[in-house]
Amino acid sequence: MRRNFPLLLILASLMIFSPRAASAEETLPELIRRVKPSVVSVVTYDAKGNVTVTGSGFFIRPGQVVTNLHVIEGAHHAEIRTFDGKGKTFPVAGILDVDLEGDLAILSIDMPPERGRALSISNVVPEEGEKIFVIGNPLRMEGSIADGIVSAVREVPNLARIIQITAPISHGNSGSPLFNMRGEVIGVVTMVVTNGQNINLALASSRLAALEPERLLSFEELSAKLRGSPQADAISERWYLNGLNSLWLGNYESALGYFEIAVNKNPGRAEAWIQVGYCKVKQGKNRDAIRAFQQAIRLRPTSAEAYNKLGDAYFFSASFNEAIEAYKQAARLNPRHADAFYNLGMAYLEIGDRDSAIAQSRLLQTLDAKLYDKLMSEIHR
Questions:
Q1: Are strands 160-165 and 104-109 parallel, antiparallel or unpaired?
Q2: pTM higher than 0.70, yes or no?
């Protein structure tokens, strides 16, 4: 017993101080209790005080709530209701910023700052099969929880990744935060309906970085701003947004039709040309895609996204040297563009230049750990 006693002490200390024991994962009920006070319902009203739309939202800063733009569009005024305790209602003072393409808005809330605890935002794109949960206001059932998994992740150029989930979503969930199992927001739920069925989608949270508080707009000023573009631009915008909706659903043929109409209505719209090229790549029409991306670059020479997608079109047409030059330009224009470095590494591998691919992996390591691991697995294959 005397000889075994020190060994028992060592084993006991390892059990007490092991990282696993010290950082035990929270259960789903524990996570919900921690993050739910930062989620709210959003209620909009017409001029007569009648409820028009209900949605969801969450605090990103004290007194600032993110929701979907379509929840508040056309409202006369709005209020939020918190889920903590018995809940409390606060008026919306105005709108700080909107993201038309991302269907996002920041609301300024007239409330004590300490009542709005901000949620932690993660820009890491979840993996397919990863567990998630949603808190929101479906069908006015405030604070409802739904869980599930990530069933697909799709890309929409110039926007963000689109996360498809199995968690059930209903009207009123628009603007709900999508959480990973660490209680971090990884997306903003939106409500997209097609063929009479609900498709459960969320915009990846990286898009939130585009929202910056600006001059406070009233609801009347917001309506005027949304109506204020010239007619041709407004028509192009409508077709463009319809195209984005189809891209969210992965319907590239339908999306292409909308984007082609958008560029016909407004040929100077660079982002619409990028989407035309992206859809052409998805259809295997790489030469047509190259022409569309080149047009986007003529209109917007500083677009890293256009050069990155041009590189893809060259890559899939087996023009690897041209792809490398396009990816290099994308990386020069945006040194934080992780996809460009990953794509550049893959293109170097295609021409047998393993050393250059390894050099790209080193640059990628500090930008995106997942893409770094993915590139390294290709290098060592």
A1: unpaired
A2: yes
Task: Write out the E strands in 205-326.
Answer: none
Q: Which residues contact 337 (CB under 8 A, 6 or more apart)?
A: 304, 308, 330, 331
Burial classification of residue 22, based on how many CB atoms lie within 10 Å of its CB (0-12 exposed, 13-18 middle, 19 or more buried) = exposed
pLDDT tens-digit series, residues 313-343: 999 999 999 999 999 999 999 999 999 999 9
* Strand, coil or helix: 159: coil
Please provide residue 123's backbone torsions phi and psi, each rounded to the nearest 5 degrees.
-95, 5
> Rounded distance, CA 54 to CA 50, Å?
11
| Cα–Cα distance measured from residue 260 to residue 308, given in angstroms and rounded to the nearest whole number | 21
Contact of 178 with 185, CB cutoff 8 Å: yes
State the helix-helix crossing angle for 231-248 and 252-265, rounded to 10 degrees: 170
- Token pair recorded at residue 284: 């295997």
- How far apart are alpha carbons 121 and 21 in whole angstroms? 25
Assess contact for 163 and 178: CB atoms under 8 A: yes
C-alpha to C-alpha distances, 224 to 11, 73, 79, 212, 320, nearest whole angstrom: 69, 11, 20, 20, 48
- Cα gap 1→59, rounded to integer Å: 58
